[in-house]
Amino acid sequence: MREHEQAFKNKGANLAAIGLGDANYARLFREETGITFPLLIDDQRAAYRAVGLKKANLLHLLRADNAKARKRAQAAGHRQVRLGQNPFQLGGSFVFGPGNVDRYAHVSQTFGDNAQPADLLAAISASSKFTP
Amino acid sequence: MGSLYTGSNPRSMPRSLSEALAGIVLPDADGRQIQLGALWETQPTVLVFLRHYG
Questions:
Q1: Among the four A43, A107, B8, B23, which has the fewest Cβ within 10 Å?
Q2: What is the rounded distance in angstroms from the CA atom of residue A113 to the CA atom of residue A71?
Q3: Which among B31, B40, B25 has a CA at the least distance from the CA of A44?
């Protein structure tokens, strides 16, 4: 997602990320990736629970779409270097604001099920006030 | 997003996701306490929940 940060900014939106684990994990991740946007730590899963994010199970590892997603990520140069606190936690992507307005929600159903950047950009653009 | 808002009793309907998150305060990688609602108070924000670091 970080490669799309400038596109989000061009549309007048911020980018922020939330992860599990601890500050050491987060700092190492930030150093390795060079990200400059806010990286928050939710070691109690309070925010993950608040938006209903899911957990996978062992059967998800056998799914064909998971194998495809893994190949796609590897081809793009992404490499998973550590599993973190909960390897079965699934992610999600949202567009909020300005104010408490939900503009887009993608709750991952399995590994590799990520929001499409074009959908996120479209959600940002939906607020004509923020379309350049 | 419709599937996130299921339920027949309006009183049991959850608030918006952004409202549910807005009051949560989390530390960033440098230990600063950030209230989530402040991230999208004045402009749209893409909020990504990571599956793992790295």
A1: B8
A2: 13
A3: B25
Of B49, B34, B39, B13, nearest in space to A97 by CA:
B39
For this complex, say whether ipTM is above 0.85.
no
Q: Which helix (H) or strand (E) holds A103?
A: strand A102-107
Per-residue pLDDT tens for A77-88?
Answer: 655 555 556 788
- Residue from A3, A18, A66, A89 to probe the interface with B (highest B Cβ count within 10 Å): A18
Tell me the per-residue pLDDT of B10-53, one tens digit each, with 9 for 90 and over.
444 457 999 999 999 999 999 999 999 999 999 999 999 998 76
**A50 to B17: CB separation less than 8 angstroms, yes or no:** yes
8 Å CB contact between A94 and B44: no
pLDDT in tens, A11-61: 999 999 999 888 888 898 888 888 999 999 999 999 999 999 988 877 777
DSSP string, A62-88: G-HHHHHHHHHHHHTT-------S-TT
